[in-house]
Amino acid sequence: MKQKIGFVGVGAMGWPMASNLIKAGFTVQIADARPAQASKFSAETGARVAASLRALGEASDIVITMLPTSRIVRSVLLESHGMDQGIAAGLRPGAIVIDMSSGAPAETAAIAGQLAGQKVAMIDAPVSGGVRKAVTGELAIMVGGDKNVAAEADPILKAMGKSVIWAGGIGSGQAMKALNNLVSAGGFLIGIEALLVGKKFGLDPAVMVDILNASTGMNNSTQVKFKQFVLSESFGSGFALDLMVKDIGIALDVAKDLGVDAPFSALCRNIWAAAQADLGTGRDHTELARFAAKTAGVSLK
């Protein structure tokens, strides 16, 4: 089993994921666009901060990226940054890149094709479960790429996730992640609209959540978001509204590329995008409830 791991992106999700790799006994070297964040992670975990992106590649058998977009993944892997070359410039033949970002399947396939030219394998392995399950190492991980490479990476992925499922060829994990988040976004939106209608009728939203969770209307949002983040008004789930809109967009792009009409999904995307435009960037995705309440003219307080 390959032991030396380079981990790029120690943000809200990447931090606990990389920490769990260290706890599992892997040697982890990290890089982050924010030097202070990288230094803080190093101080708390003992992980070494790479001197450069190329140096991280040179020191790693396996490189994991946990970044906001495929464009950024391409940049850190394949492009030069001033005097520093990308990670791929330092990778040896036989190395593996695992992109755990919620990226665009077509872009990931293109990156994988370029890496294959230097005999570096790439798989995509986006995650579901949020910060809470990243901390406990119980993420669901959806894997796309060569099945043999995925099997080689399995012990590493299982140090971060409870459920590791191979979905298909390269990009399949990311397609599944986008579709999963589309379903999650739809469930959240329809649930919030039901709470607003019920509140206007005279129902207690907290009681409504209890009834939904005992009935067929139960979903992830009714179970772990509505009381915890919406009705409490903490809006601190740890997953950004901007990222939800991005993921829904990826799902719709996949549908468009395949010629599949998805009218409800398109309407869902438009409402989430409208909330993003109204609330601004940097908001938690559960703040969609603020936008829906304003639009409906009903308060959930």
Give structural attributes.
301 residues, alpha/beta, Rossmann fold, N-(1-d-carboxylethyl)-l-norvaline Dehydrogenase, domain 2, 2 domains, six-stranded parallel beta sheet, 13% strand
Write up this protein.
This protein is an alpha/beta fold and 301 residues long. Helices cover 53% and strands 13% of the residues. It folds into two domains: 166 residues, 3-Layer(aba) Sandwich (Rossmann fold); 121 residues, N-(1-d-carboxylethyl)-l-norvaline Dehydrogenase, domain 2. The chain is built from 14 helices and nine strands. It has a six-stranded parallel sheet with strand order 3-2-1-4-5-6, with helices on both faces. A three-stranded mixed sheet has the order 7-8-9. It is elongated and about 65 Å long. The model has no long low-confidence stretch (mean pLDDT 96).
What is the secondary structure topology, with strand pairs?
Layout: E1 4-8, H1 14-23, E2 27-31, H2 35-45, E3 48-49, H3 53-58, E4 62-65, H4 70-78, E5 96-99, H5 105-116, E6 121-124, E7 127-128, H6 130-136, E8 139-144, H7 147-158, E9 161-168, H8 172-201, H9 205-213, H10 220-224, H11 226-231, H12 241-258, H13 263-279, H14 288-296
Parallel strand pairs: 1-2, 1-4, 2-3, 4-5, 5-6, 8-9
Antiparallel strand pairs: 7-8
Helix pairs in contact: 1-6, 8-12, 8-13, 8-14, 12-13
Share of β-strand residues:
5-15%
What would you call the structural class?
alpha/beta
- Supply the CATH architecture of the largest domain: 3-Layer(aba) Sandwich
Order of helices and strands: EHEHEHEHEHEEHEHEHHHHHHH
Uncertain residue segments = none
| Assembly level | single chain
Number of strands: 9
State the shape.
elongated
CATH topology descriptor of the largest domain: Rossmann fold
Whole-number mean pLDDT? 96
CATH first level of the largest domain: Alpha Beta
Radius of gyration: 20 Å
